[in-house]
């Protein structure tokens, strides 16, 4: 694995890499999407020696996984063949570009991969026309009426998510600093967007402070309960109020706390699982399902907090951005979300823990972004 290879040459890389080479790698990895602006600036500004910058760079890329590590190795080979040889990196297979990637024993382009899925009954239909009509909604609350609640680093999240959604083919409708009522009105307007009848999917991203079941508006305080119920998303975009999205994937990403508890707990080795009743209820006939074809990725489990770096942005958005850069060309959305969740398994900062969760998933098929089709 390339990330393991970087780990094995870490000390030698720190010793031998030049300051100029570090800067070239930072620029190239930023262009590739392996690093974002906040990560690049952090490596430069928070490390005052060449060796410290080199350590921060190789560690940041290695933690992002095998594909990101391959891209860094490929840049070293191209930009400094001598360093590449001294590090002994020639036994690492080159990184695959977005245009070509392996499937089984063959190498497919995005278009060939898309064609292979066109008649698959387990895959949501994507056409070149529907991809051109994609639209997404991005709401980010950064500045609050109570300045103590301002979300430092949220600007980075907003920029990164807008860039990523655009690269996936979505026209992004953006809002910042909305009240709860303002968010509600934004969803009502979005549900009437003229492109929805032609799109193959929508992505909705909401980032703010939050509590269980709600996202907080910018006027929230001890005296003013300004909030937007998360359930309203499913109401506004569901079958009854938004028939244009019937049978189309609706992908929801919410970066917000869901309570005040920490995400870690001590457990014993012997955990028994209670068994609940398996009864069914409400035997009511419906012409269409009230809620279908949704999938949501929430930044944390119920009643717990989520974390945001004041320069690099939130963990959820960083991990989603990285995973899209690495595998949106070949993974369906359920697999992308699963890989994002796996990143949280390794997150550890003293006693702090966080685990993203998939919620209210009613997707009946796989949905692929097919970026660059």
Layout of secondary structure:
Blueprint (H helix, E strand, L loop, with lengths): L1 H7 L1 H7 L2 H14 L4 H9 L4 H14 L2 H14 L1 H7 L12 E4 L2 E4 H8 L10 H5 L2 E6 L13 H14 L3 E6 L3 H11 L11 E6 L2 E2 L2 E3 L10 E3 L1 H7 L12 E6 L38 E5 L9 E2 L3 E2 H13 L5 H13 L11 E3 L14
Parallel strand pairs: 3-4, 3-5, 5-9, 9-10
Antiparallel strand pairs: 1-2, 6-7, 7-8, 10-13, 11-12
Question: Can you offer a commentary on this structure?
Answer:
By secondary structure, the chain is of the alpha/beta class. It folds into 2 domains: 2-87, Orthogonal Bundle (Death Domain, Fas); 128-260 and 287-359, 3-Layer(aba) Sandwich (Rossmann fold), CATH 3.40.50.1460. It has 14 helices and 13 strands. The strands form 4 sheets. It has a 6-stranded mixed β-sheet with strand order 4-3-5-9-10-13, with helices on both faces. Helix 2 (10-16) packs antiparallel against helix 5 and helix 6 (66-79) crosses helix 7. The chain is globular, with a radius of gyration of 22 Å. It starts with a helix and ends in a 14-residue tail after the last strand.
Query: DSSP strand (E) fraction?
Result: 5-15%
Helix-and-strand structural type: alpha/beta
Largest sheet: 6 strands, mixed
Total E-strand runs: 13
User: Stretches where pLDDT falls below 50 for ≥5 residues?
Assistant: 95-99, 259-286
Q: Termini, distance in Å? A: 29 Å
Q: How many alpha or pi helices? A: 14
CATH uppermost class of the largest domain: Alpha Beta
Q: What is the average of the pLDDT values?
A: 82
**Radius of gyration, whole Å:** 22 Å
How do the SSEs run, as a string of H and E? HHHHHHHEEHHEHEHEEEEHEEEEHHE
Q: Globular, elongated, flat, extended or rod-shaped: what is the shape?
A: globular
């Amino acid at each position: 694995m390339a990330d393991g290879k970087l780990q094995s040459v870490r000390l030698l890389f720190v010793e031998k890499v030049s300051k100029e080479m570090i800067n070239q790698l930072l620029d190239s990895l930023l262009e590739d999407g392996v690093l974002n602006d906040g990560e690049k600036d952090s490596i430069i500004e928070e490390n005052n020696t060449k060796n410290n910058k080199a350590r921060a760079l190789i560690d940041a890329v290695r933690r992002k996984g095998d594909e990101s590590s391959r891209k860094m190795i490929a840049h070293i080979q191209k930009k400094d063949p001598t360093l590449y040889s001294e590090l002994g990196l020639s036994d690492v297979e080159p990184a695959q570009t977005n245009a070509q990637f392996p499937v089984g024993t063959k190498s497919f382009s995005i278009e060939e991969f898309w064609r292979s899925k066109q008649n698959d009954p387990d895959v949501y239909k994507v056409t070149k026309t529907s991809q051109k009509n994609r639209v997404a909604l991005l709401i980010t609350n950064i500045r609050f009426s109570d300045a103590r609640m301002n979300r430092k680093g949220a600007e980075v999240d907003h920029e990164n998510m807008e860039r990523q959604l655009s690269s996936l083919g979505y026209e992004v409708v953006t809002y910042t600093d909305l009240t709860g009522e303002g968010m509600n009105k934004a969803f009502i307007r979005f549900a009437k967007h003229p492109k929805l009848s032609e799109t193959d999917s929508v992505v909705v991203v909401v980032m703010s402070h939050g509590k269980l079941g709600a996202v907080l508006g910018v006027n929230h305080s001890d005296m003013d309960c300004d909030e937007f119920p998360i359930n309203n998303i499913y109401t506004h975009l569901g079958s009854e109020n938004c028939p244009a999205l019937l049978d189309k994937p609706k992908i929801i990403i919410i970066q917000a706390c869901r309570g005040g508890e920490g995400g870690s707990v001590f457990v014993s080795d012997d955990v028994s699982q209670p068994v609940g009743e398996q009864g069914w209820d409400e035997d009511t006939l419906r012409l269409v399902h009230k809620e279908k074809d949704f999938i949501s990725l929430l930044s944390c489990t119920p009643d717990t907090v989520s974390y945001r770096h004041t320069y690099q942005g939130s963990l959820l958005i960083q991990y989603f951005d990285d995973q899209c850069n690495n595998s949106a060309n070949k993974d369906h959305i359920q697999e992308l979300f699963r890989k994002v969740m796996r990143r949280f398994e390794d997150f550890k900062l003293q006693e702090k823990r966080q685990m993203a969760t998939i919620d209210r998933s009613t997707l009946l098929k796989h949905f692929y972004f097919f970026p660059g089709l």
